[in-house]
Design goal:
Shape: globular
Low-confidence stretches: none
Number of helices: 11
Order of helices and strands: HHHHHHHHHHH
Number of strands: 0
Distance between the termini: 37 Å
Strand content: under 5%
Mean pLDDT: 85
Number of domains: 1
Structural class: mainly alpha
Helix content: over 70%
Largest sheet: none
Length: about 220
């Protein structure tokens, strides 16, 4: 099983993703000893991206006084790691190369999300996948996009390239937009940019709850 795992393209991608995750944690650990205040800001931005989403993480970075040179590359790295860990885990679990019972609810949830949103991607192929990942709608983005790419049969490296190029393009556009919003909010009050972060977080949480509610309703109707 282990040989088959690492012989697959997804297994190698998972290894890279886990290595990058370890290096990021190590960098945060070293930075905490040397520059605790700065690292706390970077860690908060990373956490918001992972838990709430790109807009919240990047908004927090700009509200904290960071510029494009720090906000954009760090968020690119965070979302790259997400793709390199979550997408291979899904693919390897789907092919039963790894069997972790606790992963099954996640695999089922990701499969349902990909199936319900993969129509345009299936119709337009690579172009559809690029637009899907780029578009700022709920439950679109790099992770679900990579899983859709896997389900429609794209080769791993083609899938990864399309997803990451689209992700990086979207992050750059979000950076320009959110930086302008941050500058505008700052004209009212120096704490106003953090109110923007809170508003984005509340919107994301509300959309997540609505998505779960609609999913449960659809399931009950199907039963």
């Amino acid at each position: 099983m282990h040989l088959a795992l690492f012989a697959s393209a997804e297994g190698r991608l998972l290894g890279v993703g886990l290595a990058l995750s370890g290096l990021m944690l190590l960098a945060f650990g070293i930075g905490w000893q040397l520059f605790p205040d700065s690292v706390l800001t970077y860690a908060a931005m990373t956490g918001l991206n992972l838990v709430i989403g790109r807009a919240a993480g990047m908004s927090f970075g700009y509200a904290s006084g960071l510029g494009h040179a720090l906000v954009i590359p760090l968020n690119m790295l965070v979302e790259t790691i997400q793709v390199l860990v979550v997408y291979p885990l899904f693919a390897l679990s789907w092919r039963q190369l790894i069997r972790v019972p606790s992963l099954q609810p996640f695999v089922t949830r990701m499969h349902s999300a990909a199936e319900s949103r993969g129509g345009v991607v299936r119709k337009f192929g690579i172009a559809g996948l690029f637009v899907f990942v780029f578009a700022p709608f709920w439950m679109t983005g790099p992770v679900v996009g990579a899983i859709i790419g896997f389900l429609i049969g794209l080769r791993p490296w083609v899938n990864l390239a399309v997803v990451l190029v689209s992700t990086y393009s979207a992050i750059c556009v979000w950076g320009l937009l959110l930086n302008e919003l941050n500058a505008w909010a700052s004209t009212f009050n120096r704490f106003a940019p953090y109110a923007l972060v809170l508003a984005i977080t509340l919107i994301a949480v509300t959309m997540h709850l609505l998505y779960r509610h609609n999913g449960r309703s659809a399931k009950n109707e199907g039963d």
